[in-house]
Hints:
The complex is a heterodimer of chains A (314) and B (272).
Chain A: H1 14-24, H2 26-56, E1 59-60, E2 67-68, H3 74-77, H4 82-116, H5 119-134, H6 137-148, H7 153-160, H8 164-171, H9 185-209, H10 213-221, H11 226-254, H12 258-262, H13 270-278, H14 284-307
Antiparallel strand pairs in A: 1-2
Helix pairs in contact in A: 2-14, 4-9, 4-11, 5-9, 9-11, 10-11, 11-14, 13-14
Chain B: H1 12-34, H2 54-60, H3 63-96, H4 102-114, H5 117-130, H6 137-162, H7 165-173, H8 178-207, H9 210-215, H10 222-230, H11 236-268
Amino acid sequence: MSVSTPAAVSAPSLLHRISTALYVRPRLLLAMLLLPPLLWLGIIYLGSLFSLLVQSFFSVDDFTGKVVYSPTLMTYAGLFNDTSISVIRRTALTAVVVTVICATIAFPLAYYMARYAGPRAKAVFYIAVMLPLWSNYLVRVYAWKLILAKEGAVTWLLAHLGLQAPLDWVLATPDIGGASLGTSMIGTTIVFVYIWLPYMVLPVQAALERVPRSLIEASSDLGAHPRDTFRKVILPLSIPGVAAGSIFTFSLTLGDYIIPQLVGSSRPFIGQLVYQYQGTASNLPLAAAFAVVPIVIMAIYLSLAKRFGAFDAL
Amino acid sequence: MRSDTGKAKAGWGLTAAAWFGVLFLNVPILFIILYCFTTDDRSYSFPPPGLTTKWFGVAFARDDLWASLGLSLRVAFISMAIALILGTLAAAAMYRFRFFGKETVTLLILLPIALPGIVTGMSLRAAFDLASLPFSFWTLVLGHATFCVVVVYNNVIARLRRSSPALVEASMDLGANSFQTFRYVVLPNLATALLAGGMLAFALSFDEIIVTTFTAGNQNTLPIFILKELSRPHNRPVTNVAAVMVMVITFGPILLAYYLTRDTQDTAGSGK
């Protein structure tokens, strides 16, 4: 802030003196502002993350089934067998695919909202994007279970359009197919995209809104074709928004265990293993070790997203 | 020459893609409503074999539904309140100051939502276990408030970045102290951002299930109620009725939030 002199005062009240005191000691003000959130996040969140790490170095006694509170690397060895690695690979790959599809669907929608929709249309679009966010997550997953079921609406629609054969052909594809859309990886992916899409639309739209109109006018005044303006001005400026949105879509997909549990093949995701191990299997250390995997993946992902300016667009 | 101003007409491809996105986002919700009325309570046959309204009566007679709704509301309100305070403080600090470790603080605020829910949930579960803390209402709030902070923070800092620092400077130049400036200049400017952030935090908490399943123990929030209900082989439409209840309750606030932030959105994009 570039104010050079504190405002002159006639009759300094107590508040005014505190205000001045804080003004000349900005560090104190900073500490007062920052301390409560830092303490909360530091103790509760970092403390929990630390406990997670600690737990992952414990192990479970095979005979008693009780947690042995002494450090060992044994639990982590459980992450490196073929089954675990295939679960991790499946989860990460799905997260990438979901993020790419979300960006593809979200961009035109956000672009239309930011540049073309009039005030009334923008209101409709805004509500249309927010409404799913405000509806219960679980029920929206459940809606897709209804829609994608073998006797459900999609099958009915495709059959009436004479597209039964292509559907059967797609469902017969190994790995991504299944008995019906509701029990296939395709189904899981559709639901992930549907559920996380608003998280991509909103930051992208915000980033596009922030592109100064004068910049676009300048570009076209200088003779750029609208397509060039889009490619060389608007698109690069919207990348931070896409990167910000992708943090949500990627992370949320990595950590979800409800969607693959309700819609999809029986092949598990990381989240399902964590939930099973901490719950029915009561193996807290192994659950903790599995939960460390998404942290490592996200650390890599966040450092990439940061380079694209995602943090400034959040 | 054609200029790309807001009044320009979008191409049909773009319009179609935009509407596809909107329909994709909203049509499934209609199915939830439709299936409230189906007479088929075991499978998901489409079109429904018959229509009935009896499921509303069945659902409203369920005490456990009302109990879980109450719990969800209480958790969401308290988490929202904590998040509003912590998020606003953090946003103010991050906007006004440059300091050593600022990037780390940004990361710390972002982390609870940037890291997958399963990590947050599992971490809290691990911590409660090490601290021998039994599951309670407050273990739910601890988790929810933590991931709600970032939502408020995002809204407030976005508004602060959009508002002109000249306003604050003018206020101080005209002799107002920091508190007066905050009360009469900053706060009115922030009000709608706070409201929007608060409501998003509320919704996030109300909706959350992944972290919740790790911190709830035997308590049933509304999402946990619905999840348990889903694994029951009969009375499936009861779940849909519960869902419609949630939608009706939350539709008012979202409209309100929209109308309150609508005016500022135009002035806030002050590059124009």
